[in-house]
Amino acid sequence: MNYKEFVDHMVEVLHEKMEDGYEIKTTTVTKNNDIRLTGVVMMRKSDTISPTIYLEEPYRQYCMGADIHSIADQIVELYRERKRDIHPDLSLFREFDHVRDKIYHKIVHYDKNRNLLKDVPHIRWCDLAVVFYYAVEENMPARASILIRNEHMDMWRQTPDGLFQIAQDNMRRSMPDILVPLPDIIEEMTGERPEPASVTDLYVLTNRDKLYGASAMLYSDKAKELADRLGADLLILPSSVHEVLILPDDRTQEYDFYRNMVKEVNTTQVEPEEILSYSLYRYSREKEEIVEICV
Fold this sequence. Notes:
Elements: H1 3-17, E1 22-30, E2 36-44, E3 52-54, H2 56-63, H3 68-85, H4 96-99, E4 103-109, H5 114-117, E5 122-125, E6 128-135, E7 145-147, H6 150-156, H7 160-174, E8 177-181, H8 182-190, E9 203-207, H9 222-230, E10 234-240, E11 243-248, H10 255-268, E12 280-284, E13 289-293
Antiparallel strand pairs: 1-2, 2-3, 4-6, 5-6, 6-7, 8-9, 9-11, 10-11, 10-12, 12-13
């Protein structure tokens, strides 16, 4: 069956597997970079929020031969697991004093998200945009969240600049930045230490949770500390929305080399909705700021 038929049939199967009282419906969600995904939502009348389970991966499993009932069982289990982790009291969402300590930010590509940015408060930064989200659960800010839209900002009588300052404070407190040598990250992920020559002087800047960690560029002092220690400007490569790579900008390599590297990684290693940018950035020791490299 094609994807639409799969989605319609999956809703029928989920109705059979869930107890009475659940409304099961599909929704189209616009993700980062204008990527549209189809999700299924299962809610009782008493629910104020429910996790969205996306169906693209289950359909891939079906096309590879998995039984649709087994896939539905996995979806139900995933729903129950995520539902257990979410216990929000959204009755307080209208009161800004109750939400201000849970407002955070992330960065996305400006041009690739023009449609989204029409509806959400944002601040332009280089070729990127800073957007804001409300953390449903304090202990997992980036995992369960609500994107802040213009109507929320208006309801709270806030401005993008005001949200940014609040988010900056919350990021420093709850999503502290980390700067780690790339060999340490590779060893953590693979259990093997890479050859030193292949990753010399490469660092990863992200946040403690390694989710939407590229926005650490906005509040981290670690780039300045690294530049001062190395005695050089820094070249910053956008690895994904979750992290950036940093290395000394010694001008011995043409920038096109690094642009091609970023393009290759984005094309072959990064999911489309997690691509941050194809640009390069530089931390200037003289100006103590990050700027986009335009030449």
